[in-house]
Design goal:
With 149 residues, this protein is mostly helical. It has two domains: 34 residues, no CATH class; 90 residues, Winged helix-like DNA-binding domain superfamily/Winged helix DNA-binding domain (Arc Repressor Mutant, subunit A). Helix content is 45%, strand content 9%. α3 crosses α6. The longest helix has 20 residues. The radius of gyration is 18 Å and the shape is globular. The N terminus is likely disordered.
Length: 149
Amino acid sequence: MGRLDFAERSPAACRRRRRVALAGCTLGEYTRQEYFAEAFMTDLTSLEAIVLAALADRPRYGYELVERIAELTNGRKQVRPGNLYRVLERLAVRGLVEETPGALAAGEDERRRYFRATRPGIRAAEEELSMYGRVLRRAGGLRQRPADG
């Protein structure tokens, strides 16, 4: 990836934003990986954590990932492919997901793009999801429900 020159905004403002749209950020030059390597453990959205959890066991392609997310959330999270690919791009820029060549079986569509969670991605998802578990256990007004299968 090429170098990105970000000279116009203050480093503090950029650290607060921590977005993929890095236009005008930080002192000097950074690659996207260098910028996010410093702070890849920043807060994940709930959808980002679920996507990483869905990719934790093996690489998956888009539609398969949409189905896995629905399965993990008992249908409570429905993700459209366009939104999913934006989330995957954000995670890839942060080094939490990477595109990988899929092993095509006979008759599979060669246009499928396979993604897998990296080790830092799995670690970030584990930390984020365990935090939700701690909140649920500690919040007195919420009661835990048994897992439904």
